[in-house]
Amino acid sequence: MALIRASRPLCRELARVFPERPFRVRFWDGGEVPATEDEAPTFFVRAPSALSQFLLAPGTMGLGRAYVEGSLVIDDLDAGFAVVDEWEPPDLTAGDRVRLGLATLLAAAPGGIPRRPSLELILRGALHSVERDAAAVRYHYDVGNEFFSLFLDASMTYSCAIFSRGASTLEEAQKTKLELVAGKLELEPGMRVLDVGCGWGSFAIHAAREHGVSVTGVTLSAPQAELARERVRAAGLEGSIEIRVQDYRRLADSSFDAIASIGMSEHVGQVQIDDYAQTLHRLLRPGGTLLNHAIAALDPDDRPLEDLFSTRYVFPDGEPLPLSRVQLALERAGFETGHVEEFREDYAVTLAHWAERLDRRLERALELAGPERTRVWRLYLRAARRGFETGYTAVYQVRARRPLEAHPRSTGARAHAAVGAGEALIEPSETAQPAIPPPEV
What we know:
The structure is a single chain. By secondary structure, this protein is an alpha/beta fold. The chain folds into two domains: 2-111, no CATH class; 131-401, Rossmann fold. The chain is 45% helix and 15% strand. The chain has helices spanning 2-17, 48-56, 60-69, 77-86, 94-108, 130-141, 145-149, 170-184, 202-211, 222-234, 273-283, 308-313, 323-333, 344-360, 362-389, 411-420, and strands at 24-27, 32-33, 42-45, 72-74, 192-196, 214-219, 241-245, 256-262, 284-297, 336-342, 393-401. The strands form two sheets. Strands 7-6-5-8-9-11-10 form a seven-stranded mixed β-sheet. Strands 2-1-3-4 form a four-stranded mixed β-sheet. The radius of gyration is 27 Å and the shape is elongated.
């Protein structure tokens, strides 16, 4: 009876302050708050620690921790996300908040102070330093190549597929994307191509096999590079593709004809985006083409690193920047943008495919990654899809060129721009002739 009494005040307060509820709540001790709508998701609080996690970190972080540790279960994750994203609870008075908080505290008390799930990562060191970025990549990818193969297509392409051009399967959509990138880079036999953040080699293999180019691919994940090399050998392309475990910042000066950066720049961050663009500009020959394919935050005032769940459990230090900020970095570096294309809806469909494929192989996922990490990925894939569906994030392909000749950013150039705007800019020089005075009348 003591356990039943633990959740009873909370059940009473939830029903009172939320008279209309598109969800159902069940508690470990038999307490229940029914939904007021049909086909509503059930949030099952399996242990008091779920409430403690929420009290310590109100919002999505607390809910995420409870779900990862298994003290919170949602019978329909997609419907649960819709509630979290779309439901607008009524305004609560100060008294309502106090009573609800005290009831939650009382129900959470049997669980004591919870610990963070063991998977939660807090990185140390300078943000986006070479060392910290390497640690972030290891955390994400060292879950194992086979785990990712459970939900990716056969090409192991780990980025937005393109369904909007007629593809009906994930495999077709990823092939469409790879060929779209190759076409925008205008690949021709004999060209030297750099693939920054090459993953398991899907674009490198496609570009070398279908377009006769030579490719250097770089990644920070050793297991990923190992499988990429195996795939290159299986395709008989060892003479055309080199896969390196190397930070893009440590590439020696070169003269690539084209650079593909697919799903990379969102991991560079605000503090490094200008250096990133300058590095790619340095590595590209004059007249060469860059294709930057990346997730972008649609709110220019958003601070992505505040999304602590994804940055601590999935993509440490991930920081999708607004398209305008990426464009600014490219322009500062000396690139000229020629084409921009958006694929927000395509990524939502891609993530739906990935989530469904992972669910079909759930038993193997649990064997490979364990229950906590598997829960993280089931949650993340749906959260990411919701972000694209609701207009929180998008994905853009930006094609830019390094000009054949650097355009002088000189006084003369500024003068022409000012005159074009209706304002003359005159700066005297030592060789300038004195102005002719108007004739006296």
